[in-house]
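Researcher: We plan to redesign the surface later, but first we want a full-length starting point. Tokens attached.
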């Protein structure tokens, strides 16, 4: 048979073969019609239904059906995926008891977003650069040899710490555990990190300092039973639609919803109170709430006295001079009394001047929270992606603690995580420069000795570079080689122009991904990995629930699971890894990670998920943190006084507007998966900029017109959407498109001092009309499926 004949599809045959095929299809169609007619005339409706069911069951027998966990956001929705071995055919609700977070709900991405698996540009073979600098296909053997040679050369010439690894929050827990182990045991570097650095690392730092664990204290069901919910910096309906549905239902049933955000996002339409805030000053309005609650004796005295440090009811007077307050704060930076004194500067006048929130709205929100029996405090990146994001989270932790909203049903802190496994893979599994799995400090001699023994290697007590620091270190020549797994750093890093230059100047770059994305274009070797539908493991969702991910179809082409690639490379670099399955890796995880001590694949499968901490196989998991004590040395919440920090860059006469960034419903992160879905692209085909009508009038901009946005670091051109969702001093651009790459405008240098998170949410910009027009993108279209 000729190659042309082999490549022709069934409906493209020509000549005699085509004629015979058409005749056969018509005959079959005629037979089917006659048979259907005869059956309809002679059989009862019940019998017809019975036959149809039998035929359907028979066809289902030919499909692979697995209950699995969604690979988009970290809500952790579970459902059945149907595959014929070649593609994903459908996603349908699984039994409600097997889906503890979502029940029968899914969002549009989890329901329909699988075209990427079979995309024409899916990476199915290793690629290496030839002598002309072009990619060519290679065998795995050649690709592995190139990787080993490149890493060994840099390590020999510049030392192991000149290598770094960026792990993947898209990959499973088991794979992320091996990424951290590979960095330390095989490469010999502590410079390993992940995308958590770009989003919620300030959440982790702030909550860990205050309460002991850098994670949500609640279960998802607490959103349904809370009397009050405060949301800030969260476009919940678009970024976490299933959680938004639960919140809105609770509001319909009588709960109060308070929304503080620079944009009037759709969830604000359901709010008891929406307050527009200036981006970058969250600690100011939060401290204003705390001040009102404390000064009016609305705080939970019993909780504060028994479960919070630094409470001195007989010592501190109600009112002190400003100088005395400053002296007390200098002496005592932690504890209730320090917080009480530090918030006194956040008067109604200061809060309104700095943040734009009127005094009556501060009073209303504070008293609503104080009056509630149980309140959940939820946030996403609007609170954290700042040069002082950790301070914002510390302030929110103070607010939750003084109102006693921790450790009881319907109350707690709930940072909604973005990527599917950023909680587990991005934190719990320890691909971090300062922590082993389970947030065990590498500087602790006893903990380090445990991992040196378990991994048979020496580990430096010195912290490595965070992701954002890696790019600055590479600019200085301190990092020479990178291994980037499942992270599109060329688009996601702040200051994309700088990131591109760093990637192009590296001595050696290995990228492991599903596609030759923007980052892979700079690589020396590209390794084809598998998607979550092609492998088995676990993800940990936003409320600490560890759930199974099951293989639904075989890997595409010659792609391989991340853990198998890591094992192959480790063995070629002198180690003897012999894992036969991801279940074996999880057994190693629970042997060295106390909070995962009771977790096995068998048990997770049998119990439909387990929430950490789960100390041993007899432990039921932990539904709600801090019911009895905090995970601190003294078992109490360590509140910390938080002051007033400006954003690193504020508007001025040259750049008069604040740019903030975020997500939209029909796209996901840098678009690696969603851009390959025609249906998704019809709803949001490009980035856009939201401009307030007053601002649009001032700069002569109309909806649909192309707009140039400039910062001190670069410029982009996107279509305008004139809307009052944003305030007059703010513009908003999504993060999802390489063509417009909003991170060309953001700042790579000014990082949160505790967490090294960049300031994505505030950049000083100017706007002007550009040549060309585009169709306006309506907010209603973008959020049309928000209730799914």
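Model: Full-length starting sequence:
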């Amino acid at each position: 048979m000729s190659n042309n004949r082999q490549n022709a599809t069934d409906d493209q045959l020509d000549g005699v073969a085509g004629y015979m095929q058409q005749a056969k299809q018509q005959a079959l169609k005629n037979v089917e019609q006659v048979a259907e007619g005869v059956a309809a005339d002679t059989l009862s409706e019940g019998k017809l239904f019975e036959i149809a069911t039998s035929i359907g069951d028979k066809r289902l027998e030919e499909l692979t059906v697995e209950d699995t966990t969604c690979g988009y956001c970290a809500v952790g929705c579970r459902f059945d995926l149907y595959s014929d071995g070649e593609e994903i055919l459908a996603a349908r609700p699984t039994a409600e008891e097997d889906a503890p977070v979502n029940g029968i709900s899914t969002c549009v991405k989890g329901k329909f977003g699988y075209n990427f698996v079979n995309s024409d540009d899916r990476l199915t073979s290793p690629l290496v650069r030839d002598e002309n600098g072009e990619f060519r296909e290679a065998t795995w053997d050649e690709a592995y040899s190139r990787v080993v040679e490149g890493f060994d050369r840099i390590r020999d010439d510049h030392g192991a710490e000149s290598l770094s690894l960026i792990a993947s929050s898209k990959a499973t827990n088991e794979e992320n555990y091996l990424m951290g182990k590979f960095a330390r045991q095989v490469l010999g570097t502590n410079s390993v990190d992940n995308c958590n650095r770009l989003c919620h690392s300030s959440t982790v730092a702030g909550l860990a300092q205050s309460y002991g664990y850098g994670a949500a204290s609640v279960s998802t069901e607490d959103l349904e039973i809370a009397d009050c919910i405060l949301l800030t910096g969260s476009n919940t309906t678009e970024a976490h639609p299933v959680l938004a549905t639960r919140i809105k239902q609770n509001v319909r049933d009588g709960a109060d919803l308070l929304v503080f955000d620079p944009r009037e996002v759709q969830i604000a339409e359901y709010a008891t109170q929406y307050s527009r805030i200036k981006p970058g000053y969250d600690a100011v309005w939060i401290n204003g709430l705390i001040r009102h609650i404390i000064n009016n004796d609305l705080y939970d005295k019993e909780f504060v006295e028994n479960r919070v440090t630094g409470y001195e009811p007989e010592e501190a007077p109600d009112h002190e001079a400003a100088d005395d307050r400053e002296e007390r704060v200098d002496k005592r930076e932690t504890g209730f009394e320090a917080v009480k004194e530090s918030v006194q500067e956040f008067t109604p006048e200061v809060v309104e001047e700095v943040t734009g929130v009127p005094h009556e709205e501060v009073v209303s929100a504070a008293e609503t929270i104080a009056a509630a029996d149980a309140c959940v405090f939820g946030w996403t990146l609007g609170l954290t992606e700042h040069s002082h994001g950790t301070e914002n989270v510390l302030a929110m932790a103070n607010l939750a603690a003084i109102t006693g909203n921790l450790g009881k049903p319907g109350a707690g802190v709930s940072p909604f995580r973005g990527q599917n496994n950023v909680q587990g893979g991005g934190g719990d599994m320890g691909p971090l420069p300062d922590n082993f799995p389970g947030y065990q400090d590498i500087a602790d001699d006893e903990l380090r000795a445990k991992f040196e023994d378990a991994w048979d290697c020496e580990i430096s007590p010195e912290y490595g570079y965070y992701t954002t620091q890696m790019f600055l270190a590479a600019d200085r020549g301190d990092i020479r080689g990178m291994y980037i797994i499942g992270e599109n750093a060329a688009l996601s890093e702040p200051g994309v122009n700088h990131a591109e230059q760093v990637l192009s100047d590296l001595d050696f770059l290995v990228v492991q991904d599903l596609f030759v994305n923007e980052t892979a274009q700079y690589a020396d070797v590209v390794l084809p990995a598998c998607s979550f539908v092609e492998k088995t493991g676990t993800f940990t969702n936003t409320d600490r629930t560890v759930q199974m991910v099951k293989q639904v179809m075989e890997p595409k082409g010659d792609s391989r699971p991340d853990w198998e690639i890591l094992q192959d490379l480790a063995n070629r670099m002198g180690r003897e890894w012999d894992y036969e399955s991801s279940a074996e890796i999880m057994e190693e995880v629970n042997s060295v990670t106390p909070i995962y001590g009771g977790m096995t694949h068998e048990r997770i499968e049998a119990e439909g998920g387990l929430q950490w901490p789960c100390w041993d196989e007899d432990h039921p998991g932990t539904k709600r943190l801090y019911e009895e004590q905090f995970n601190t040395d003294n078992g109490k919440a360590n509140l910390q006084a938080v002051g007033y920090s400006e954003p690193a860059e504020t508007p001025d006469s040259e750049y008069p507007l604040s740019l903030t960034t975020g997500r939209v419903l029909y796209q996901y992160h840098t678009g690696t998966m969603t851009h390959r879905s025609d249906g998704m692209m019809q709803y949001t085909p490009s980035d856009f900029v939201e401009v307030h009508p007053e601002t649009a009038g001032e700069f002569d901009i109309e909806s649909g017109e192309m707009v140039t946005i400039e910062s001190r670091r670069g410029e982009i051109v996107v279509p305008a959407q004139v809307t009052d969702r944003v305030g007059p001093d703010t513009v908003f651009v999504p993060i999802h498109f390489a063509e417009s790459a909003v991170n060309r405008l953001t700042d790579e240098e000014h990082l949160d001092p505790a967490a090294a998170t960049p300031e994505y949410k505030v950049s000083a910009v100017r706007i002007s009309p550009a040549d060309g027009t585009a169709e306006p993108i309506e907010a209603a279209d973008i959020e049309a499926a928000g209730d799914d």
